[in-house]
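Lab meeting, item 3. Inverse folding demo.
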């Protein structure tokens, strides 16, 4: 569980540094947040990251 949280925390800055697109930033932030929440709550980290990534991508596209 600790590794999943640490990995999620490392992915956000890396993704933000590499991308300039709001959709990609939103997906990266959403994926990391989804993985973190799933890890803390004891859920499936992969599914949490996937759902968070999709939601973050949509929100990043709409908000831009």
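The presenter then showed the designed sequence:
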């Amino acid at each position: 569980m600790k590794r999943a949280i640490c990995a999620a925390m490392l992915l956000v800055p890396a993704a933000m540094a590499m991308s300039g697109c709001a959709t990609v930033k939103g997906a990266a932030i959403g994926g990391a947040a989804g993985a973190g929440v799933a890890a803390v709550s004891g859920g499936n980290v992969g599914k949490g990251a996937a759902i968070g990534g999709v939601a973050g991508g949509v929100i990043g596209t709409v908000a831009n």
